[in-house]
Automatic annotation (TrEMBL):
This is Dehydrogenase (Flavoprotein). It comes from the Bacteria. GO terms for molecular function: monooxygenase activity. InterPro entries: FAD/NAD-bd_sf (IPR036188), Flavin-dep_Halogenase_NPB (IPR050816), Flavin_halogenase (IPR006905). Pfam families: Trp_halogenase.
């Protein structure tokens, strides 16, 4: 069996470690913090529920008593409130939670240990060791201990925004200028969701300068935050003596937030975080896979961070297991992981960028979602269902297991249309100023900030002709469709 080192014990690293350990692979998880530890990202997509069920941790999460989440209410732009209710669209089992991440993440890391992974907390990984272009181990230090070198056949970098491989070793992580946002948030007790909200659903409210979130947690406690561009945040910050004063003022400026917090009690403590969205040039390579935020980070508007982490963690485990069993060669495994993970990120990125043009309206967002996904096996394909499925994370799971291996084809169609002067869903949603900046960046390629959906290379797309797809039964891995199963996407 190959030896695997996982850097980071968040949802992505824990998912990968648990799945590998359950298949008998020797796994060591090196986590720099001591759990439980606070973390933002409390609103979970329903796709995570499916992955947790497969990993065997669903009952443990259910027993935590987290708020059950069934969708989202958006008060966005000039339109009236509109609701995506997953249980109404897809059935009563399609739901998730609003979680306290310190507890959620601890359950997942403990589950990885109980599954057979060796978990070391307070372990600081200094660097990933390479032999040529291949990752062969890590240099790390336990709390109060001496520096150690440990070899491995594969390294899964789930180090979050630290990005030990992409940001520190290769230095090929590219920021997205459009999403240079800052979030400021805190907690209130006894707030109220907007009327018509789906049970336990998140409220997302737009404003001229950004957007607000309202998340109902356990014990009638609410996570409440505001996201705005860094430039606006810096300018407004000068008006206030403290972050706490700024947070309260931001809430008071929104009639909607004043309404939902009218009878609520503020809990002291303010958090500020820069949401610098980015993507690495490569999500994997010889001997390594980048999972979760170590590969890419997306603006938090659609609450997709934990989905991308757990989804990529499952893909990394499937790739390593398939390699070990000889189901694929290394080049195929890398292409499988790269294309499916990048496709999931691109699809969500394209949808999120459309929301920042608030005048577009929900019909436009639904139409774009419809373009970004394919019909289900029963032939149904409607814009509102497509949107609901994408923000639930279910489109990625469905298309990863497509026996025809066409998971990324819808994204390719969108990009091809833009390149040939046809429908331009991304470009049309950019402001004139943003388009001008992108043209300027094209003129100075060494200074260009990559816009992933617009500059994607054809080699980043999943090769439908290969027929590679994700399998979970009778065991996790990669399989390939027979020649008569592989069809041409259209």
């Amino acid at each position: 069996m190959p030896k695997v080192i996982v850097i980071g014990g968040g949802p992505g690293g824990s998912t990968a470690a648990a799945l590998l350990a359950q298949s008998g692979v020797p796994v060591k998880v090196l986590e720099r913090a001591e759990f439980p530890r606070y973390h933002i990202g409390e609103s979970i997509t329903t796709s995570c529920r499916a992955i947790l069920d497969y990993v065997g941790a669903l009952d443990k999460i259910n027993s935590c008593g987290f708020t059950s989440k069934t969708g989202v209410l958006m008060r966005w732009g000039q339109e009236k409130d509109w609701v995506i209710d997953w249980t109404a669209q897809f059935g009563t089992d399609v739901r998730s939670w609003q979680v306290d991440r310190e507890d959620f993440d601890t359950v997942l890391l403990d589950h990885a240990g109980e599954s057979g992974a060796e978990v070391v907390q307070n372990a600081q990984v200094k660097r990933v060791i390479f032999d040529g272009d291949r990752a062969v181990g890590v240099e790390w230090q336990p709390a109060g201990g001496e520096l150690r070198v440990e070899t491995a056949d594969y390294v899964i970098d789930a180090s979050g925004r630290a990005g030990l491989i992409a940001a520190q070793h290769f230095n090929h992580r590219r920021p997205h200028e459009i999403f240079r946002n800052v979030a400021i948030w805190g907690y209130w007790e006894n707030a109220e969701l907007l009327p018509g909200s789906p049970s336990g659903g998140i409220n997302v409210i737009s404003s001229p300068d950004g957007w607000y979130w309202l998340i109902p947690l356990r014990g009638n406690r609410f996570s409440v935050g505001f996201v705005t561009h860094k430039t606006n945040f810096v300018e407004r910050r000068r008006e206030f003596d403290s972050p706490e004063a700024m947070l309260k003022a931001m809430m008071a400026e929104s009639p909607t937030m004043k309404q939902v917090l009218a009878n609520a009690t503020y809990q002291p403590g303010v958090h500020v975080e820069q949401d610098f969205s980015y993507a690495a040039d490569d999500f994997c390579g010889n001997g390594y896979f980048l999972v979760g935020d170590a590969a890419c980070f997306l603006d938090p508007l659609l609450s997709t961070g934990v989905h991308l982490a757990m989804y990529s963690g499952m893909l990394s485990a499937a790739s390593i297991l398939a390699l070990n069993r000889g189901e694929v060669n290394e080049q195929e495994a890398q292409a499988f992981f790269e294309s499916l993970y990048r496709n999931a990120y691109h699809r969500l990125f394209t949808l999120v960028i459309s929301f920042y043009q608030q005048h577009a309206g929900k019909d436009r967002y639904f139409a774009l979602a419809d373009t970004l996904s394919r019909a289900r096996e029963d032939g149904t394909k409607s814009p509102d269902l497509a949107f609901g499925e994408i923000i639930a994370g279910l489109t990625d799971l469905r298309e990863a297991a497509d026996r025809a291996g066409q998971g990324a084809q819808p994204i390719k169609e969108v990009i091809d249309a833009a390149a040939t002067g046809g429908v331009k869903p991304v470009q049309e949603l950019l402001s004139a100023a943003e388009q001008a900046r992108l043209r300027a960046e094209d003129a100075a390629p060494n200074q260009r900030v990559t816009m992933a959906p617009m500059y994607i290379d054809a080699n980043d797309l999943y090769d439908a002709a290969s027929g590679l797809y994700l399998v979970t039964e009778p065991r996790l891995g990669i399989s390939r469709a027979s020649s008569d199963e592989t069809v041409t996407a259209g």
